[in-house]
Every structure is written in structure tokens, then in C-alpha cells.
Design goal:
Elements lengths: L37 E8 L6 H17 L3 E2 L2 E9 L1 E2 L4 E2 L1 H12 L4 E6 L3 H13 L3 E4 L29 E3 L4 H14 L4 E6 L3 H13 L6 E7 L8 H10 L3 E5 L6 H11 L4 E4 L6 H4 L4 H4 L2 E5 L9 H14 L7 H17 L7 H9 L4 E3 L2 E3 L12 E7 L2 E8 L5
Parallel strand pairs: 1-3, 1-6, 6-7, 7-8, 9-10, 9-11, 11-12, 12-13
Antiparallel strand pairs: 2-3, 4-5, 13-16, 14-15, 16-17
Helix pairs in contact: 1-11, 2-3, 4-5, 6-7, 11-12
């Protein structure tokens, strides 16, 4: 089981008293206050390439939440700025652009919160920058465990993301130690006996692949391999043949759509006519599901933290209705997380009262989030910055669209 913390009900900034290796004070990297009654919240998401539809809907969710709060948080007016962490050349998030976004936010004296990134690898770049400035950073979608906890992380994580020594980051989506357990359970439910893994070598993709590889054997699923792919390759037929030779009856891709996700699935499917294929939330979007084709989609299953709308509280039903009425379409899976990310930080600013323009006070207020009734259900933010929500959804693909299959309740390893 993952360690969720040793201090229950104690303010997060005191967690250093636990004596563990999860970081120090959660009070923020500084106590800089913004002058005036207007504060800025920046959003940084990939608005180029295949990730654009998903990110645009996250931005729309964030804007909806801000509109419902009257454009304010407590007594402070909020100026919302949407930034693009992708480039047209890369077609996805790009390190230099991500760094530039974070530095732009840091250079703005009125910045109080930074919402982002969408991709965990991008946050690994922006977080040390915002942390040094003591700015609260909240992601609507990051799931890589090493951003917040040491269990299942690489050496030096998560400390290396917090140069100030203080925790300033959180997320409203369950992390990959939970998703991996759900993914393994989903594979087990589909009768998998031996799984072959490919990953895109990024922070997120390699991370979720490693987590699945770790948790599968105790669940009775043999891991036949875990290979990194060359995302610049024209095709993956050689790897697909290797998977066939391994005797695997199931396949898992640790990665994102933008790193040749569709091509990987098509090539693996072509060489392995009966193999069952699985993907994580990194491919839970229309840019992936709409391009697979009938043969591939019928044997593809995806884990995704977004559940069936009917399983959410009444406030979520209202969100889905308002979103469709305003934008003329159903939202992409992470839109509701964008809505909640904005909502929870606005409430944190409001709870800080007259200190709502003080970065350290807002960080402290965010980490004190307990028993929050949200569109996602009731949750706390723990001392690591993680949500206590844990349910994952299993999704099939029908007619090019993600279709909710079941709730997967799995204990984190």
C-alpha cells in the first residue's frame, strides 16, 4: 500500500515532522504578496497537435469555473491567462516552451496560481521554476507518481522538483500508483495471462509502464517485456513481431497519443490478430479513439480517471449540461478536471481571506483542503499534494468514441 501520510488532520506545512523523505514544509517557497486587488492565474497546456482538443476543453472547464465564481476569488478579481506549452514543430508539449511559460508566470508579480501542465514530463520542467517563486501549481491531469511521492519514483524524486524545500504542487486526479493497479485489474478482468509493454520513454509513459510491470506479476499476469519506442520511427512492425514471438496474449502501451500512440496500436494489432490491447489515460481522448479503426478498437481497453457522468454528484451533472450548452459538444475526459482544478484553487484563495494575495498563504490554504464536496466527489488534499480520490474508469471504444465500461476499484500497490 502507498504511504498516504503520517499526520491526519494536521496542516500540510508541518509534514516534515514525519521524518520521511517526501519533502519538507508545505508553506511555499516564499511569502510574496501581490499588490492590488487583481490576481493572475495562468494555465499552461498543449494547444498544438493531437492534444489540442483535449486541452481546449480543459481550458473551457477552467473558464466555466471562473465564470461561476463571478471572475473572483474572495475579494480578489482574477485575471485568467491561457498559455500554450506546445509548439507547432513538435506537435506536443516542448521543454523550452514549457520553461518559458513558467518563467512568464514567475515574472508576473500578480501571479497567484499556475494551472498545469497537462503532461507530467512538462511539469517536471515547470515545477522547479514555480516552486522557487513559491507559486501554487495545480495540475488537472498529471499522474506520474514521482512528482509528489517517493514510492515507485526515480532516485531523487520528488525532492528534486522542490528546490525551495517546500511543497507547492498538487493535483486533482489520482496518481499512477493507483492507475497502474486499476490497469492491472482491468487486464485481469479481461483474462490476460501474459502482457507485453511498450512505452514512449517520457516521464509519464515510462513511469506508468514501470508501475504496471511491477504490479502485474503478483496479480498473476506475466510480463513478457517492457521496451521503449523510438517516437520518430515511421512504424513499429519489428516490435510488433517481437510481441508476437513472445507469446503475449495482451499488450499495454505506456505513453501518450502524441508519441505515435495510434501507429503503435495499429502495428501491434496487425501482427497480433487476437491480442487484447490496453492503454492509460494518456490516450483517453478523441485524437486517439477516432483514428484506430473498427478492427483495432474492438479489442482495445483504456483506463481513465473520468467516470460515467451518472456516477458523479448532481453538481457534475450540471457541469456536463452547462458545458454542452455553451460549447455545443460533450467535453473531452479531462474537462471536468480542469473545472475542478480552477474551482479548488479559487476556494483556496478565498479561504486565505485578506491574505489571498499572499502566495505562501494560498499554498497553505490549498494543502488544508479537507472534505471538499466537488464535481468529482468528496476528497481531501493529502500532505503530498495528492487527492484522496481513487476510482478509475475502464473504457471501451465504439465508433471512434470512448465508451464507459465500468468502475475499477483497485488498491494502490
Amino acid at each position: 500500500m502507498a504511504v498516504w501520510g503520517c499526520l491526519i488532520g494536521v496542516m500540510a506545512f508541518a509534514v516534515a515532522a514525519c521524518g520521511d523523505d517526501n519533502g519538507g514544509d508545505s508553506g511555499g517557497g516564499g511569502s510574496k504578496s501581490s499588490a492590488g486587488s487583481t490576481l493572475t492565474i495562468y494555465s499552461s497546456l498543449p494547444l498544438e497537435g493531437d492534444g489540442r482538443p483535449q486541452s481546449e476543453d480543459v481550458v473551457r472547464g477552467e473558464k466555466l469555473a471562473l465564470e461561476e465564481h463571478g471572475g473572483k476569488a474572495g475579494n480578489f478579481k482574477i485575471n485568467y491567462q491561457s498559455l500554450d506549452d506546445a509548439t507547432a514543430a513538435a506537435g506536443k508539449w516542448e521543454a523550452g516552451q514549457t520553461s518559458a511559460n513558467a518563467r512568464k508566470a514567475v515574472g508576473d508579480d500578480k501571479t497567484i496560481v499556475y494551472l498545469g501542465e497537462f503532461n507530467s514530463g512538462a511539469t517536471a520542467i515547470s515545477l522547479p521554476i514555480t516552486n522557487e517563486a513559491g507559486i501554487l501549481q495545480v495540475s488537472p491531469s498529471n499522474t506520474y507518481v514521482g512528482l509528489t511521492r517517493s514510492e515507485g519514483a526515480d532516485k531523487g524524486e520528488p525532492q528534486k522538483y522542490y528546490p525551495s524545500g517546500n511543497r507547492t504542487y498538487g493535483r486533482v486526479v489520482p496518481a499512477d500508483h493507483i492507475q497502474a493497479a486499476a490497469q492491472v485489474q482491468y487486464q485481469k478482468d479481461q483474462g490476460c495471462k501474459a502482457t507485453y509493454i511498450l512505452n514512449d520513454k517520457e516521464v509519464y509513459g515510462a513511469g506508468i509502464a514501470a508501475q504496471v510491470a511491477k504490479l502485474a506479476p503478483p496479480a498473476g499476469i506475466q510480463i513478457k517485456g517492457n521496451d521503449g519506442i523510438d517516437t520518430k520511427a515511421a512504424n513499429f512492425r519489428a516490435l510488433a513481431g517481437k510481441i508476437k514471438s513472445s507469446g503475449a496474449d495482451c499488450f499495454f502501451f505506456g505513453g501518450i497519443t502524441q508519441n505515435k500512440g495510434v501507429q503503435v496500436f495499429k502495428d501491434v494489432a496487425a501482427a497480433n490478430p487476437t491480442i487484447k490491447m490496453f492503454g492509460p489515460d494518456g490516450v483517453a481522448e478523441s485524437a486517439f479513439s477516432s483514428k484506430l479503426g473498427a478492427d483495432v478498437e474492438k479489442r482495445t481497453w483504456i483506463t481513465n480517471p473520468t467516470l460515467d457522468p451518472k456516477l458523479y454528484p448532481a453538481s457534475a451533472q450540471q457541469f456536463f449540461q452547462k458545458f454542452k450548452a455553451k460549447y455545443g459538444k460533450d467535453p473531452e475526459p479531462y474537462a471536468i478536471y480542469g473545472y475542478e482544478a480552477m474551482s479548488v484553487v479559487l476556494e483556496a484563495i478565498k479561504r486565505a481571506g485578506d491574505k489571498g494575495n499572499d502566495r505562501a498563504a494560498v499554498v497553505k490554504s490549498f494543502f488544508e483542503t479537507k472534505g471538499r464536496d466537488s464535481v468529482l466527489g468528496k476528497y481531501d488534499i493529502d500532505e503530498n499534494g495528492d487527492t484522496t480520490l481513487s476510482d478509475y474508469g475502464g473504457n471501451k471504444i465504439e465508433g471512434g468514441k470512448l465508451v464507459f465500461d465500468k468502475v475499477i476499484k483497485a488498491q494502490a500497490g
